[in-house]
UniProtKB/TrEMBL annotation:
Pfam families the UniProt entry points to: MFS_1
Compartment list: Cell membrane
Protein name per UniProt: Predicted arabinose efflux permease, MFS family
Family matches, as SUPFAM superfamilies: MFS general substrate transporter
Keywords assigned by UniProt, alphabetized: Cell membrane, Membrane, Transmembrane, Transmembrane helix
Organism: Nitrosomonas aestuarii
InterPro entries: MFS (IPR011701), MFS_dom (IPR020846), MFS_Efflux_Transporters (IPR050189), MFS_trans_sf (IPR036259)
Molecular function terms from GO: transmembrane transporter activity
Listed transmembrane segments: 15-38, 58-80, 87-104, 110-132, 152-170, 176-193, 213-234, 246-267, 279-300, 306-329, 341-362, 368-390
Domain Major facilitator superfamily (MFS) profile: 20-395
Principal cellular location given in the protein's record: membrane
GO cellular component: plasma membrane
Membrane topology according to the record: Multi-pass membrane protein
């Protein structure tokens, strides 16, 4: 008989300290690594498999499009099957996907192989947030969320620094093969950091709809997903057009990753101390819009704008997703942790899927990247407006709750 409970009590021996955190970090890093690998190795992929570089956007869409669809049910799936089984699915799926990517011979095959990563991407946030909600004390939750969300930028750092070197020495296929044993290793690590028993929050496989507050937060994350995915996908290609070497262009992604890790680790606890994190989301979106304007100023003689843009986007926009995840973990008004996390992922991945192909269409239409950058600035300005709307909605919700209590 399944017993409904709000807290899952776990034996202290199952918590293995740093290993628990490392597994959370890599559960976030490995599913997202495909995005940064496509970005940094894209020129080599397009040259070897003979397709236009703007088609890279459709590779990203195949993965994150599937992730967005699956995220509609990922929270309920995690609650039904438990964290251990779903963590195993994440790491096993990544191993299979990267094996296939390293073996494909056509662009169509590459799209299908990359799409498999969407399964792991859809599960990553609900699984890791579920483990944090159940195994981490309230005062440490924001800090741990920031650390585990920084895993996404760890993937960017790895893709920017190591994958190009492996690809140049041994080929891009070897670079993808290198990820497979890492994913398999974490399959075994899963058994050390997750409880064997699973107590479901709900009695069956149920599906709920997001409330109004969660919808506002989802809209913000949708905008951030569009801007981040398009920026990361096409930044190295744009940099090469401005005269950068492949290694230096890929180093921009490494800088983006380092600043993103710093942003998520530092800003998530800062946001948790604020009365309403919506103001912080607004400020970060505005900074990201300015950073993309910096990128637009770059040309063959002014590469410094590329470095400044990559650093500022990483420091600002990247932190917003970690802050959003921290909000839904700590504030029950957004809904249950697994369900709210999955809906945030739906919006974020939906934006990730739409951003690169939309940018590619604008680039093909205008014959350059300038119109695409302008589109991203407009999207980020919309995110600022939506963050202010969320602030107003949360304030009104709190006032109504106070009135009912009185």
């Amino acid at each position: 008989m399944i017993r409904k409970t709000n807290t899952l009590r776990i034996e202290k021996s199952t918590l293995t300290g740093y290993l628990f955190i490392v597994v959370l970090v890599f559960a976030m890093a490995l599913p997202m690594l495909v995005l940064y690998a496509i970005s940094t190795l894209g020129p080599l992929l397009s040259q070897d498999l003979v397709f236009d570089s703007t088609m890279l956007g459709y590779l990203v869409m195949s993965s994150f499009g599937l992730a967005a669809i699956l995220s509609l049910w990922s929270g309920a799936i995690v609650d039904f099957f438990g964290a251990r089984k779903m963590l195993l699915v994440i790491f096993f799926t990544i191993a299979i996907a990267f094996m296939l990517i390293a073996s494909v011979q056509t662009f169509a095959g590459l799209i299908m192989a990359v799409a498999i990563c969407g399964i792991a991407q859809a599960l990553a946030n609900p699984v890791t947030n579920f483990l944090i909600a159940q195994q981490v004390t309230q005062e440490k939750k924001a800090k741990i969320v920031g650390i585990k969300q920084s895993g996404v930028q760890l993937a960017a750092l790895f893709a920017g620094l190591l994958l190009p070197g492996i690809a140049l020495l041994y080929g891009w296929r070897a670079a993808f093969w290198a990820i497979v044993p890492v994913a398999i290793l974490f399959c075994f690590s899963t058994f050390l950091v997750t409880p064997k028993a699973h107590v479901r929050i709900t009695k069956g496989f149920t599906y709920t709809f997001p409330n109004s507050l969660l919808l506002w937060l989802m809209c913000i994350q949708f905008c951030m997903g569009i801007s981040l995915s398009a920026y990361v996908t096409f930044l190295p290609t744009f940099a090469i057009q401005q005269g950068m070497t492949l290694f230096m262009a890929d180093s921009l992604i490494a800088v983006f990753g380092v600043m993103g890790m710093l942003s998520r680790i530092v800003l998530t606890p800062v946001g948790a101390k604020l009365k309403d994190e919506s103001w912080l989301l607004c400020i970060l979106a505005a900074i990201a819009a300015g950073a993309i304007v910096f990128t637009m100023y770059a040309d063959i003689d002014r590469h410094e704008w590329l470095w400044l843009g990559a650093a500022c986007v990483g420091l600002s926009a990247v932190g917003t997703n970690a802050i959003a995840m921290s909000m839904v973990i700590r504030d029950s008004t957004f809904g249950t942790v697994t369900t709210a996390s999955s809906f945030i992922s739906v919006a974020f991945f939906g934006g990730f899927a739409l951003g690169p192909p939309l940018y590619a269409i604008l680039a093909d239409y205008s014959g350059g990247f300038l119109l695409g950058w302008k589109m991203l600035v407009v999207v980020l300005v919309c995110a600022c407006v939506l963050a202010l709307a969320l602030n107003s909605a949360r304030r009104q919700s709190a006032e109504r709750l106070t009135a009912k209590t009185i």
